[in-house]
Amino acid sequence: MKSQKKMVFLLLIAILLLPVITACGSTQKSSSSKTSQATNDPVKQGTNKMKQLNNKLQAALKKNDTDAIKKYGKQINTQWLSYENGVRDRFPLQYAKIERYQQPIYAQSNLADPDVAQIKENSTALTGQLNDLLTAKETKTKPSKQMDQAVDDYLKYADEQIDMLVKTTKPFVKAVKAGDVEKAKKLYTLPRIYYERAEPIAESFGDLDPAIDARINDVDNVSKWTGFHEIERALWEKNSLKGQSKYADKLMTDVLDLQKKSKTFKLTPKAMVAGAMELLEEAATSKITGEEERYSHTDLVDLQANVDGSEAVYQAAIPALNEGHKDLANQIDKQFQAFDKQMLKYKKSDTEYEDYTKLSKDQIREISNELSKLSKLMAQTAKIF
Asked: Where is this region: Disordered (predicted)?
């Protein structure tokens, strides 16, 4: 009897515990399913592989192993290209941030003497962005909000460039006022990069753009000519900075004025895309002729900066392009990559490219053609907004 009662008692306990056991099994299966889904997600997989390569890059940076730094810098780019389309479609906001740090790493890895300090800085920032991507939620917003967000993101980018313009113009102006020709020559191209990236914004402020960036053929009275190019002529044609202090002071005043006005600047989506398109068109037709930097022959620096600024517009517009225009987004992305790859052949450092006068007519034509393709694709984008 005791044995039978014991069996009945155990049976009742088993029946009572059955739902709990089943629930636990279900929870485990659900958890396992979620883990499996996360593991099989191509974006998660790609990001984890990219993180591994970035960790190897950082180890190489600690050892100051140049060959390994170049190797992993290039492998990070290859890995990014293998899955970036999925990121652009699902996580467009994170996509632009990763591009911001990944691209400079790749560019440096192609140089004979890469800037290790800069790679380290970008690699550290890239780690944070990759971690953010692993936990990010897919971007799903209404088209109108996407456009507004695109403008906000681009204006943030432009503000950053103009802030850096101010920061880098200060030492340049100081060298000019000190009469130090060689130092001023070395410092000339850096503020030019930041100005050319944000040029569409600068052109919106009446006389500020010509005061800062006018070429000699743009002014009716040469005695009233001011800005970067007036000083450029003194540096490379006259090899003297005599009498340039007033132009240096004027340049600094105008750059600070641009910074102040840009903080409250309002922009529409159409104007944003149109500015990028016009910048590319100008680069492809007039700047490619060598007339922009006719004394220093640093024209390729300007061209690359113009494309960088236009690419920032494209990246900001990706969420809107994803809504029914993915083919166009893919075409634009590939064209930016094609242009950057071509320009790497002439790049010596972040602020130095091949002297424009050393390029053959065929090389100039190739660059012009790539710029024209970009301009036409951006023109299609303008029709969407």
From this structure: 26-49
